Amino acid sequence: IFSVAPEVGTYRPVSTDPCPPLFGPAFDADPYPAFDWLRRNAPVSRVPLPGCDAWLVTRYEDAVATLTHPSLAKDPAAGSPEWRAAGLGLPLDHRPSLARHMINADGADHARLRRVVSAAFTPRRIAGLRARALEITDDLLDRLDGPEADLVAGLAYPLPIAIICDLLGVPEEDRAVFHRHASVIDSAAASEVEEIARATDALEAFLDDLVELKRSRPGSDLLTDLVRRSNQGEIDKDELTSTAFLLLVAGHETTVALIGNGLLALLRHPAQARALRDDPALLPDYIDEILRYDGPVRNATWRFPTEPVVIGGQEMLPGEPILVSLPAANRDPAAFADPDTFAPGRIGEPHLAFGRGAHYCIGAALAKVEGEAAIGRVLERFPDLALAVDPAELRWWPSMIMRGLFSLPVRLRA
Ligand code: HEM
């Protein structure tokens, strides 16, 4: 993601070794040595991105300070002209009508947009989705009848999209079309900007139609709840479509990566996998440690100072773009003992995989439900599960925001 080694802010390097590469397949496969170097030598560093520089925050304490800072805005309008010209936002810069959602909002607007969705994420709805996640997982696993399978294509990818379709109440007959547009928008899967733009347009039209359908034929889904709130004037039409779009982009690839990265962690730690098979009640602890040890979100989304701020001793000026490396913070030895060890049930600071503060992931409970269903069932149904390739052959997404696998080839049966 970063093409050149970072300049060091106010920090003087304490290592004479160069920083490991911050770009390319080696970094994608294992970014942790580079994160370790940054945390030690340049914890708040200036990194050159295509078109503009950005600050990268890597220590746990600084990450928490950044994620919760009152003078850091999320609204892209607060970004510097260089950042805006570089077009580094989500691939919807050409569609401002889809960008009017909570992750791009601050203050009262953010609170209003978030309140509408949290009110619809009721414990009852999450409990219903747990049963659905188990049902969909079983159905997907039933289809894996050969000795080998790709658990990303066969499970990690289709499960979250099916759950989002349930959440939004996408009719059965439209799901294939929805799925097709969504898979192009996954930045990891698409390389062509025009292709993403076309799919984004198609998805916006699809979501507009879906909203109209919910107006004329209300269902028991979350989107129907949002439409009701919109009818009462709490959110406008673009905010409604943008929110549906956000739930798709924020809730899909992240959960694909949780399941894929989690299964890989267990395949590489057979003793821990055995302990979990012996006591499935440990599953929530395991999901938590997977999120810390190799979480899906590589960098929390952009933040911009609205006045000069100092974090980790480094001054950042209004508009300068800031990214927080959540995986770097989640391996900070100042917050986690023996941070490179996969140790479910560890005691210590809470991990930052879902962020912190006002923008803390609203779908965290749902993501855990999906991760537990998928990972729990795979372990239960395939006691002899093993990786079918050398770990060095696994291919990782070359994404700046996400960390996940293109595929996870496994042997299902001995
Ligand atoms: C926000 C991670 C799943 C919806 C966030 C943030 C993170 C995150 C780190 C904060 C971003 C920031 O502060 O810049 C994850 C991970 C997931 C996951 C690791 C899976 C393991 C989901 C799901 C949904 C969802 C399943 C919904 C279906 C959202 C929304 C926000 C958000 C709407 C914006 C919240 C706000 O701005 O107030 N997520 N997420 N996420 N997430 Fe998730």
From TrEMBL:
Extent of the signal sequence: none
Entry similarity comment: Belongs to the cytochrome P450 family.
PROSITE patterns: CYTOCHROME_P450
Gene3D superfamilies hit by this protein: Cytochrome P450
Name of the protein described by the UniProt record: Cytochrome P450
Cross-referenced CDD domains: CYP107-like
Gene Ontology terms for molecular function: heme binding; iron ion binding; monooxygenase activity; oxidoreductase activity, acting on paired donors, with incorporation or reduction of molecular oxygen
PANTHER family registered for this protein in UniProt: CYTOCHROME P450 YJIB-RELATED, P450, PUTATIVE (EUROFUNG)-RELATED
Keywords, comma-separated and alphabetical: Heme, Iron, Metal-binding, Monooxygenase, Oxidoreductase
